Structure formats: structure tokens, C-alpha cells
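Morning!

As promised:
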Amino acid sequence: MTIQQQSPVLSVEGLIKDYPGVRAVDDVSFSIESSSVHCLVGENGAGKSTLIKMLTGALQPTQGVMKVNGVVYQPNSTQDARESGIATLFQELHVVDELSVLENLTLGMEQNRFGFIIKSDLEDRVIQTLATIEPSINPSARVSSLSVAQKQIIEIARAASSGANVIIMDEPTAALSEREVERLFTVIRRLREQQVTVVYISHKLDEILTLGDSVTVLRDGKHIVTKPLSEVAGRSELIDMMIGRSVFQNYTARTAVTNEVVLSAKGLSNRLLKDVSFDINKGEIVGFYGLVGAGKTEIARALFGADKVSGSIVFKGQQVGSSPKEAIAAGIALVPEERRTQGLFTNLTIRENIPVMNIRRMSDNGIFRSADELTAAVNYVEKLGIATDSIEKHTEKLSGGNQQKVVLAKCLFSDADLLLLDEPTRGVDVGAKTEIYDIIKNLADAGNSVALFSSELEEVLGICDRIFLLYCGSLKSVIINGPNVDTTDILNVVTGGNKGVTQ
Amino acid sequence: MFKPNTLDHSSTTVASQVVPFLRNYYIYFVLIAIIVFLSAANLDRFDLFERGNFLYEKNIINILRVSAPILVLAGAFTLLMVSGYIDLSVGSTMGLSAVIYAMLAINGMPFWSAFAITALCGALLGAFNGLLVVRFKITPVIATLITLSLFKGIALLLVQDGVSAIKSMGDLKMPLWFNAYGREGVLMGLPMAFWVAVGVTIVLIVLQNRSLLGKYAAATGGNPTAAKLSGINTSMVVFVLYAIVGVSAALAGIARASFMSLGDPLSGDGMELTAILVVLIGGTAFSGGEGKVLRSFIGALIIMTLTLGMLTLVPAYFQTLVIGAVLLAAAASNHFISRKEHAS
């Protein structure tokens, strides 16, 4: 590459984007050095997505200039952006499952004569690029046989071999396990060695601290700071810059916890789970903590009756676990892991989503009372602080945090006594997280029980009364939350360490 | 702890070898099985086939020349479905083409000119479908339902005089060469219509495996967004595929008209269902991305052999049911195979 190391590969000057009534990006200026990993952080609504959309040509700025290698850059489409050397790795995967790895890598770049594909050095080139960043992937494999992480690497390899010198990655680790994240980081570091600049967007501050060279913080559409990460004093400073208040919640013992057992699970076993037994008390918030693949989702789905397991689940003296319908009737609600695909009807409005789990309650002999629906929707929007201008808004247009609140409202409306929350704050910004935690605590204080399934230690330590530690499908240990909890011990247990914690 | 794992692993490797094999070749076994079954059955009581032996040359020729229309259509229809789109108007395109072809022939146009002009008309009709879908963004099913009606309406209008099909116009009579294309053996006792179907299929197989169009059709059907982000003009891909389907439907119309010696506007009725059936039997995914031209060709042979073979075995009112049952079995085994594949 002949680019001078000193000149910024990408810069924006006085960038403004107005939507009707809102200024999403407000006079943002910063520049990105070549061959670096540049992180972009900010709460949801801080203007990150809008900024990225302008860089990739999906949106045009109202005012301001973008420059690539010092030259003014005005993309009108992703295609334009790519021709200027800027490729984007979106949250959704854009690979063709039905084609082979090689066919995907060359897609859109094939050499042809009269419309027929001819052999060229392109194939060798892309195979070599793939081999440098991830040698374990076979170029002739069908993409459908690859894991999500591998598919992502295919997209990165395609971007790299199409000559992109800037790759924008929007939350690339959202669907990856810890080990896959490590591998992705290795790939990103290799890209940096090849003089590729990576713009990295993530909610996970630890990733940014591990991986980034420099960071740009946005808040409410405004540029707060751009500086090398070596000058940032850890995550607390990042968080301060993002929101100006501390998010880390300190657990305080709750008084609403009783000794009355509402749910008792004995000997749950299936493909992954190995003889898992536990009790959940009334008014209690219990946490299930473990790494990806430890069995958290499996336990949640088993309790809800969505998957078959052996063993017994007794809820308020009644056998449950054979179907979701039975669980709902008994008073168990599940907030699933994937809210967009499993938790919400994204093409329906907020009003229509809230009563779906309990539609019978608002019907007379099958005739639906829409006035009640309206009341319930208005009620919950207010109660949970769902930020929207109308209850008639389609849920697909809400931010992640607000979508999650709608899912919560849906479950609350079903009058569940036990709420199963599977990764309730995944992809949710820090501000909304705090609000969701408050909702959970209020619920438990009102005498409901909550089971929180999470892979964020900070989260379970922040709000759970008891924490069950899982490793490879077994329940390894139970700890009672309090000021004396030793996080090193917890991490030791969930990563397979032998030394247990007091029962 | 590792034992069950290794066991599991070895069983999936066996499955991962057998399953793709089954997936690739099961359709040939099905065709062979049907032929063997029909050959073994006692056909003596019936006139349609030469007595005693299903595999008699004349029977095969019979089946193949009746099958020419669907054989010529199946490949293009497959490519369109691979791209994730569908054309329900193929039957009407066929009927309209049959009428146009018959009119041109009756008015004294020589074979090749009539043939070329009709094929061109087919391309235009297909392109019109493509235009509705890619330019006016009408859902494929709705767009081609509209043209199903439109094209058939035009064909009926052309015939006009109240008779159901064109055999003559005023004093002008059908030329003597008219039914040679669909009936008269030119090579191995098989008519031109069949060989054109074979030729078209070969061209489409090459297109699918070697050309940008083939690859882009799969990409468009597999992941439209990915295709667009890769700089592929998916609208153009879909438009061209509709035009190709139009040409194929016109060739099917010519074959049918020639075989029946008349230009019947309704001669393609129900063809869209046969085409979908044949393509699905061939293993093409209804959702797009997946599918092979050659397998649809075999699928067409299976359906036609079954339909015509069945004529000899069961009463007419039974056939549809039996065909439905066989299709159900095929669909079930296909589902089973692909589920195994996903599991492995």
C-alpha cells in the first residue's frame, strides 16, 4: 500500500444529519488513522448508526464533508462506498448459504467473457486472502455448513480481497461465543498488519479495551472525544464519557425474598443438561450464570416447556414443562434470547404486541375488546418508560432497549408469577439496561419470582439474590450474593475450574 | 465423557457420506423404479401401449413426444425458481404462443420464420412479466396471475370466432408440415420438439454452471441483500430469467400446437402447476437458492412416465390420486434427506 502513514484514511468534518424534528448527528468531526482499530462507542441513540449509514452511503449528510485519504467522498450506495475502499460488516450476515466459500468470496467480482465465468488469478487471490486471515476454512465448503463466526470471517475476507482498506464492523461479536470472539480478534489484528483499518462498533467495552487503538465517543449526536485508548483509564472512564454516570450497580440485600418455594426442578437432563436440580423462591431474583454453551438457554426453555427434558419441574405444586401453553397457564413467562425473532411480532404495533400472550383475557367468547387493549398498552408504555411517540408504532422501528421493554410488557401482562429472562439486556444500551434492572427489581419486590439467564457477570452480580453457576450443562455451585462474593472464584468455576464455592 | 461424543461423530460421518449421495442421485433411482414397476406390470389389457412390454420402443417415443412441452419448459422454470421468483403465467404464454404460431403457419409463413417469431413473442411476454415484477415491484405471484389472465384473454381474442381453437382461417388451411415438428421422428424416432427440449436443457445446464447468470440466480435466491451488496444487479438477473422462461413457454406452446395440429388458446392450462411440481420433484427449494436444471428435466420425465404409465394401470378417475400419493412420498423422502443433511 502506498498510503502515507500520517494522513488519516478516513475523516469527517462538521458532519450533520437532520431527521424531521431530530438532529441525529450534530457537528461531528474526527479522523481515523490508517492501519488502526478505531472504536466507536456511545449509547443507543447517540448517533453511531446514523454516522455509519452516512459513511456507507445508505444516508446522505445534511451538512458536512467526509474524506477518504484526504479526498472528498460522497457515496450514494454501499456499492459507491466499496469502490472507495470502504466495506461494511453488518449485523445481519450477508453471505449466500447455497454457494461455496469460494463462490461467495468472488461474488460480484468474477471475470467473464460473454457472460461466462472464466478462470483468473482472482480465485487464487481470494483463497490466499482467506488463508492469511483464517486458514482453517476450506474454500470449497458450502457456506451453509459453516458457523456464524466462520460466515463472518468469509465476509471479512471478501471485503479484504475486494481491495477495501477500511472495514466497518457493526457489533460483530453479538452472536459469537467467547472462543469465536478470540478468533475474530486474531483476524482483526491480522487485518491491521495488512494495513487495513477497522472501524469497530460494540457495546462490549471490554472488547474495545482489548482490541482498540483509539476510540471515538459519541453522546446525543455530538462528538465527545477521539483519543488513543492508551490514554483512556479503563472502562469507568469510557462509561463516564458515554453517559456521565456510573452503570455498575451494587447489590443490596432485598427484603422481599421469602422462603416459600415456587418452583422446584429435579434432575433435568437432556442433550446438554446433566442432572440439574434447583429451587426458586417467591419474591426472589435468581441468576443463572455461565459461558455460552453452558446450558442457560436450555434450562430456560426446559422450564417453559419449549424443549423436552427428563426430570421433574414442579411449579406451585403443579407439574409443568410439557408445553409453553401449560407454562403460560400456570403463570410462567419467557423473555427469549432473540427478541426480534422469538419475542416480538416486529410487524405489529406496540399496542398489538402487548396482549398477545393473554389475548383470551380481553375477549368475550372470542370477540376481542379493543378498548381494553388500548388501556393496557398505554398503561405499560408509561409503567416501563417505553420511549415512543405513539403506541401505534411498529416494534421493528424501536431501539433494542425499547423493544426489550415491549417484550417485558407482554410477559408482565400475562400475569406471570415467574419470569424467565434469557439475556434480557443483550444489545441494549447502558441507560436502558439500568431501567430494565429497575423493572426486574420492582417485579420481584411485588412478590413475583425472576430467573435471569445471563452471560454478563456484572449483570447477575448487580441484581440477583442467588446465583447458580453453570459449566457444560451441569450446575456446579450456588452462591448467595452479597458483599463478600469473590468474582475470581466465580470465573474459575464457570470456566471449568475444580475449586468449588461454598454451597 | 468423550465416548458418546466419538460414537456420535462416527455415525454422522457415515450419514454425511450417504446423505449427499442420496440427495444427488435419488431422483434417478425414482425414475428407474417407476420404469421397472411399469415394465413388470401386466399391460396386456390396454391399447395405448404396445402389448406386453412397457419398454417397447414405440411406448418410449410416445411418452417422450407427449412430454416435449414440459421438458422444454422445466429448465428455465428451475432457474427462475432458484432466483426466488415464480411465473404462474406460463400456461397462458404457451396458449397464446400456440395461437400465434398456428396463425402464422396458416397464413403461409415458412416453419423457421413462424418458429422464430413465436419464440420472440414468448420472450416479450416473459419480459413483460419481468417488468411488472422488477420495475413496478408487483409481487411475483400477483403479477403473473394478472398476466395469466391477460395473455389468455389476448389468445381468446385472436381466435375470436367462437370456435375453441385455430385449425384454419377462412379458405386458408393448416400447412402439411405443421405437425411434423411435434410428431415426426427425425433422430432415433423422436421428433424435433423433443430434441429442441434436450438442446435447450443442455444450454441451460451450461448457463447454470458456467455463467454469471447461473451463479447470480443462485445468489439472488439465496440471499438477495448479499447479492445486491456484492454489486449484482439482481433486477436485471430476474428480468432476463423471466424472458428466458417466456421463450421456453413459447417453445412449449409450439410443441403442443404441432402435436395437436391446432392453435388452442387453452392448450397450456394447468402448465404452471405441472411445472412447479416437476421442479419441486427435482429437488429445487421453493424458497430459492437451490436447484438444478438437469434434475428438473428428470423430474419432468418422472411425472410424465407416471401419468402416462398410470393410464394403463388404473382407471382414469384414480390417476390423480395415485400421482398425488407418489408426490407426497417424494416430498416426504426429500424432507427426510435434507433433515438428515442438516443434522449431520
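The domain at 67-312 of chain B is CATH 1.10.3470 (ABC transporter involved in vitamin B12 uptake, BtuC).

Hope this helps with the figure draft.
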